[in-house]
Amino acid sequence: DRISNIRRWRRPTPSSTFTASYKADPDPSKINLGVGAYRDNDGKPWVLPVVKKAEQAIVADGSLDHEYLAIDGIKSFTDASVRLILGAASPAVAEKRYAACQTISGTGAVRLGADFLARFKMAPVYISNPTWANHRAIFTDAGFKDIREYKYWNPKTRGLNLDEILATFKAAPNGSILLLHPCAHNPTGVDPSFDQWKMIAQVAREKNHVIFFDCAYQGFASGSLERDAQAVRYFVDSGFEVLIAQSYAKNFGLYNERTGCLSIITRTPQLAQNASSQLCKIVRANYSNPPAFGARIVSLVLNNPQLNAEWEQQLKTMADRIISMRKALFEALTQLGTPGTWNHIVDQIGMFSFTGLTPAQVKVLHDKYHVYMTENGRISMAGLNTSNVRRFAEAVDWVVR
Ligand code: PMP
């Protein structure tokens, strides 16, 4: 009886489980810093006004049907996605040197890329340590046997471990796959500077490594779509063939619509067509074709200059609120004279911050102060607001003393 031999998989504690125990906690001063989604200053989810507008326009249009999409999704959506990440003026766009496929959000994009690489490029894959927990799982399930890590975080400086990164990529076998976070590294919030990206590119070029960018936060990190894309654009403009996974969960707030894109930038248009056909082959045997609604919204917004401008503004609202919470937390800790250095809170970027708090301190924060955060010391800046940031700073002050 085989099924009786199956062991139980312990589900991770993602934001949903987190939120359940947070909700059940009757303490009025509780703080949820585990959420992986944007919250406004009242701690509420935010549907972007431009998304609401687009939804209404799509429904009002009257032509909405529920026919199947193409295997690789809505072309106006995938084309716009490539322009968004590479820039409309990119030669790769003009020369049609890309294969782009609509995916089940960012997760599905990483998985499709991993499946593609597993078929054609069985090499070791390097993921950062630490990284988003799903990276290892995705590459394992895609069949990768050789998953290695590069040390990304330097606990002493609470910053980037550039020397280790470069040394690891130099020592890696030629043609290895490097999975990189182009902006707002999850979970550390630490990104290489532009000069540091150039150094990473230099090593990758010497060793002929394959670059896979997992881009889940474009525009959400700095508030500027261009700035958050600068690493990807640099690699592509200097001639790399790269894979790019994009997610519209964070920057459009379309979390559950599962809207994303995988693109492969190639040397020739012919190679792009070959790659595109292979992506379709993988999707076809997996889920046949993607869901439409989220991609319809994104396509409408990205392809309409007026809506696009509104979106950029609202994206900036989210990024700016998060940046202002970093400042507020830093200032509160400085005011309290909390032992240790806290510059990293303002130097880091994006939704998450690696505080450097230990699991034991995290436990005290939970038990004594009803703070909900992951054991590794990561906090979601989106969970902070003007009403709770001071209280959180005081709690941190208490546990580190
Ligand atoms: N990659 C990274 C690094 C992420 O942080 C996330 C979101 N947690 C994703 C991919 C994918 O998210 P989604 O599937 O919701 O787009």
Automatic annotation (TrEMBL):
Top-rank taxon, per record: Eukaryota
EC number of the protein: 2.6.1.1
UniProt keyword annotations, A-Z: Aminotransferase, Pyridoxal phosphate, Transferase
All copies of domain Aminotransferase class I/classII large, residue ranges: 29-396
Segments forming a coiled coil: none
Enzyme class label: transferase
Cofactors that this protein relies on: pyridoxal 5'-phosphate
SUPFAM superfamilies xrefs: PLP-dependent transferases
Record carries keyword Transferase: yes
Keyword Transferase: yes
Pfam families to which the protein is assigned, alphabetical: Aminotran_1_2
Single GO MF annotation: L-aspartate:2-oxoglutarate aminotransferase activity
Subunit structure: Homodimer.
Family from the record: Belongs to the class-I pyridoxal-phosphate-dependent aminotransferase family.
PANTHER family recorded: ASPARTATE AMINOTRANSFERASE (PTHR11879), GLUTAMATE OXALOACETATE TRANSAMINASE 1, ISOFORM B (PTHR11879:SF55)
Full protein name: Aspartate aminotransferase, cytoplasmic
Source organism of the structure: Polyrhizophydium stewartii
